[in-house]
Amino acid sequence: MKNLFKKLFVGFTVLSLTACGSTTMQDNTFAAKENKDFTKYTNQLVVEYAENDYTTMHQFFEHPEDYGIDINNVDVSLGEFYTDNTEEIKEDQKELNKFNRSTLDKTQQTIYDELKYENELSLKAENKKFQYLNNCWSTMSGLHQSLISVFSEYILRNEKDIQDLITLINDVPRYTNDVLEYTKKQADKNTLQFDYDSVTQDIQDVINNKENSSITSALYNAIDSLNLDEEKTTSYKAQVKDAMDTSFFPSYQAMLDTLTSLQYNVQPLQGLSNYKNGKKYYEVLVENATSSTNSISTIKENTQSAINSAITKFQKLYKANPMIAYELDSVSTDFTDVNQILESLQKNYKKDFSKVKTMKYDLKALPEDQSVSGIVAYFITPALDYSQNYQMRYNKRDYGDDPSSLTLYQTLAHEGIAGHMYQAQYNKEHLKYPIQFFYNNLGMSEGWATYMESMSLHYLDNNEDLLEAYNLNNILTNLYIVLMDISIHYDGMSLNDFKNEYGDMFGSEGLESIYNQLADNPTVFLSYYYGYLQIVNLKSAAKSRLRSKFDNVTETALILSATPRPPSRRAMFLPLNRTSRPKSSIAQPPFDQAAHNGHRQQNDKVEHHQQEQTFDGLGIHADARGGSPFG
Fold it and tell me: Residue 569 in 3-state DSSP?
């Protein structure tokens, strides 16, 4: 079971199971008691996950020995860029099938179903037909971004961790070379596609800033935090600097040299369906991203239906106040300090969701050279046995830090309370088996956090109708992004067709940058926006079924119990992105911003555009349209 969980970057994929579990109908009979053999089996899976990948072990365990993990069995390296795990996945499935599902208790049956489905999905993604369709140089989570994420947030808990860190830095050239060799093969096969100008500039910036790198500074600070004696501290800092100078930064020069030499082999940004087997590959990415077995056509239908519903709701607001569309830019909060936002959210979330222990956290703005356009903020996934504060970072460089900004308020609700940080605390207090902490159900997890953006608005004292209009504006834009992504990657829409299709709604200006960002990052926003729609629908169905029995405790348990999902067994290089950090395909613990399980990805180009264009496209500007089309 080697490399079970290699997270290669984030990107769009970290193949795992969906909340729906296996598509086969299951017997509802379950055992009254825990099946201890199954528990032993899943605990051993966790051991193998950790022992086969150092970064997984380091990210998720402060004390690995408490979980039966032998650190002497772990090779300290960044792992393999790509390994074909098909046979291992099949062997995993054989082992799983040895258990009679009816002998498992209710929670174990959920784990069983998730593991089974995840194996099925991983096998789809392992298809060699998809091998050269990954984007290792995505603007949002390519190798050049993933390495920064790994080392800028690297956790040092003891002196040995420093030694291992130096080993990892010195392993960057090998890993980078493997990615570059893969990139050359893509060039030969005419499947090399990425935003050349943006990526090469980002790489050049890292090289230019090497003497004042915030990454090196962050590692120095981490060493200082261990409070070693002065001699050791000085010695380790010198070793880290040497490793950065001889391994890390030269790897960026190697990236730049190779990519520059391949400039004329880079394909124009376009949808996956333009490549052989690209359409099928996109279907796998969508299934992983949305945590849903819905077909593409069903996703389109559901999204369009939600758009129609949002328009209808706005129609009512507009009839009551024709000036409401113009008032959106004036919406703000009364907060005067960023930390006040989380304090307020920690106080108010209990009105709607189950109470958990007080969450302690560190919220920091990212240094400029660690900021990534398109990533507004992220939450760093804690170890199972963490003892420190939760960690959140936000992108001040590209999105500011105005505490009165409604965007920043919703961002911290997404990453913090009751979004990802709350999820982590809830899981810590409620999950029973170690393997459950490795669940990474992208659609449900990011859908929940995006849902929190909307829910958090009613904790504010602003005019309710204005907040609702603001929320509908965001929802409409987000849902259109889902349709845009499908239009590009599944329907094969060209840039000109894209402008024709969406120009009336969003205006032609800026659509090219939106097209390029989506073409460069397939499905990256679907986890958030279609995931949000699934959360809303799940809540609606539960309320209809439970009626008066539906309350905040029920809602929290219902939805958060659906968010976990085990990480993919495959180690497929992923569209390097993270997924966000993604991993093989999506498997991404620390090796991408995705190891920071909660980063809120927001299409920055779409975001500005949406504020000015969404309602205009709906005909809301009465003075320009001669009245509302809804009347």
Answer: coil
Q: How far apart are CA 104 and CA 29, in angstroms?
A: 9
Q: Of 529, 309, 311, which is closest to residue 414 (Cα–Cα)?
A: 529
Rounded-to-integer distance, Cα 11 and Cα 585, Å = 7
pLDDT tens-digit map of 202-249: 999 999 999 999 999 999 999 999 999 999 999 999 999 999 999 999
CB atoms closer than 10 angstroms to residue 621: 14
Express each pLDDT in 539-595 by its tens digit.
Answer: 888 778 877 776 766 666 656 655 443 333 333 232 222 222 222 222 222 222 222
Q: Which residue has the tokens 């040995």?
A: 160
Q: Are 55 and 4 in contact (CB under 8 A)?
A: no
To the nearest whole number, what is the mean pLDDT of the chain?
83
Phi then psi for residue 577, to 5 deg, are: -160, -115
- Residue 194 · residue 262 · CB < 8 Å: no
| Measured CA distances, 263 to 133, 253, 267, 584 (Å) | 18, 15, 9, 26
Residue listed under structure tokens 């989570």: 141
Sheet of 600-601, strand order: 361-365, 390-394, 375-380, 600-601
**CB neighbour burial string for 432-457, b if at least 16 within 10 angstroms, e if fewer:** ebbbbbbbbbbbbbbbbbbbbbbbbb
